[in-house]
Amino acid sequence: MRAAELIEKKRNGEPLSTEEINFLIQGYTADSIPDYQMAAFLMAVWFKGMDERETTDLTMAMMRSGDIIDLGAIPGIKVDKHSTGGVADTTTLVAGPLVAACGGRVAKMSGRGLGHTGGTLDKLESIPGFSVEQSMERFAEIVAEHGLSVIGQTADLVPADKKLYSLRDVTATIDNISLIASSIMSKKLAAGSDAIVLDVKTGSGAFMKAESDAVALARAMVAIGRGAGKRVSAVVSDMSQPLGNAVGNALEVREAVEILQGQHAGGDLAQVSMTLAAHMLAVSGVCGLDEADERLKRAVADGSGLAAFKGMIRAQGGDPSICDDTSRLPAAAGRYSIEAAGSGRLVAMDTDRIGISALLLGAGRRTKEDRIDPAVGIWMKKRLGDFVREGEVLADFYVNDEKNLEEAVAGFQSALHIGRDPVERPRLIVTILEQ
Ligand code: URA
Ligand code: CA
Fold first, then answer.
1. What is the pLDDT of residues 70-100, one digit of tens each?
2. Lowest mean pLDDT among 109-118, 352-361, 362-371
3. Could you identify the atom of ligand 1 that is nearest to the CA of residue 165?
4. Which listed residue, 61, 196, 211, 366, has the most CB atoms within 10 A of its CB?
5. Is-contact 55 221, C-beta < 8 A?
6. 205 CB less than 6 Å from ligand 1?
């Protein structure tokens, strides 16, 4: 087999066989196929697409490129959740503890922030002492004891995806359903859980901005997961504005703790977290959806969700007292209020630009080498559809280093569109693909 022939075949719109896909992924992982050929192949896929069988083959080939985690030592059904990435998307820190409190077993390997989106590991590391690096033995122990552990991916989890993602990032081939689905699902399958709940985002802060694309991505991922014998549900949810109020690591931990304490109950972050948690319990076989709803509300009201979060924090070396007193989280030196320049309704937000503004303050990384400042970020005060008066506060910026402050403020202001037209508030849950 020659890579050039396979590139030509895909360029001409023909499907590749299982063996051909294996050849490309094995060759690329082993450095026998160079970046320039893989870049041409990815662009051919971007234009011509892959069918369901090819996408599954691609996922399986990628999954087999590195370690496959065996969670068999942990009793019961292990459930994972995954978000395709968003802004103020802190659902793991709310849903994970609640599911654990209701008898689920959440064994989650998470990633770091990517572009404008935040990462669960960076958020957890804002808790003083918390370590996302645990041995597989310790990970299993923590899940068995507390029902929840979140750790970083092992270095050798799907090395094919590390290479492919970096290449896609610089060749304009991120936004293809087969490539995103295989990237995410290869990692989920290698991470060893029995059941998976996917949260596929749509809107201005999502990778898949159009609703129809997000639904197609959800379908593709569900098909791959079920084909691999996993129990999978997918929720397609709105990302046309930041999901919660907080954008930034310690701020997002604070908001998650507040929800677990029973605050912000009607808010979008709480609602999406509850929906995901209910489906996590359902795919785990713990209980049906109606009962899940009741149990989850009880886990907030009786404090058992917050207790589960404390249990994981303590087990991973962190200071659980932040759950009783969030002022013990890292705090920024300065706070600046951003005011509305005119009056009207908040008709649209460029959510990805809000994420970039937080990144410019130090909440995210522009390059892999950038260091994150856990304390900084943005606290949103308004939602889509709200009426704002000129001079009213739209958001507070929490700042340590003022170097990029001006650029961050300008980007934020241009991301919020205030107009006169009536606006419909976006549907929070677009659709659910149930197991
Ligand atoms: N997240 C991933 O892990 N991979 C993608 O391709 C897109 C989002
Ligand atoms: Ca992600």
1. 999 899 999 999 999 899 999 999 999 999 9
2. 109-118
3. 6
4. 196
5. no
6. no
Sign of the CA dihedral 271, 197, 77, 318?
A: negative
328 secondary structure, DSSP code: G
pLDDT at 169 over 90: no
Q: Which atom of ligand 1 is nearest to 179's Cα? A: 6
- Is 180 touching ligand 1 by the criterion CB < 6 Å? yes
> What pLDDT does 154 receive?
79
Cβ proximity of 106 and 100 under 8 Å: yes
Q: Is 84 in the pocket of ligand 1 (CB under 6 A)?
A: yes
Q: Distance between CA atoms of 433 and 435, rounded to whole angstroms?
A: 7
Nearest residue to 232 via CA among 223, 240, 241:
223
pLDDT, tens digit, 9 for 90 and up, residues 364-391: 988 777 889 999 999 999 999 999 999 9
The tens digit of pLDDT for each residue in 8-54 reads: 999 999 999 999 999 999 999 999 999 999 999 999 999 999 999 99
- Strand ranges, E, within 84-194: 105-110, 148-152
Please name the residue that has the structure tokens 């709480």.
Answer: 270
Task: Supply the pTM of this predicted model.
Answer: 0.95
> Residue 259 C-alpha to ligand 2 middle, in angstroms?
22
Residues recognised as catalytic:
82, 161, 168, 183, 187
- Residue 367 confidence (pLDDT): 76
What Rg value do the Cα atoms of the chain yield, rounded?
21
The residues pairing with 348 across neighbouring beta strands, listed in sequence order, are 417
Ligand 2 center to 6 CA (angstroms): 30
How far is CA 435 from each of CA 10, 138, 198, 264, 394, rounded to the nearest angstrom?
33, 31, 11, 29, 40
Ligand 1 neighbourhood includes 207 CB (under 6 angstroms): yes
The beta-carbon contacts of 429-432 under 8 Å, at least 24 apart in sequence, are 429/235, 429/236, 429/237, 429/238, 429/271, 429/272, 429/275, 430/202, 430/211, 430/214, 430/215, 430/236, 430/237, 430/238, 431/215, 431/218, 431/235, 431/236, 432/233, 432/234, 432/235, 432/236, 432/275, 432/279
pLDDT at 365: 87
Query: CA 94, CA 277: separation in Å to the nearest integer?
Result: 8
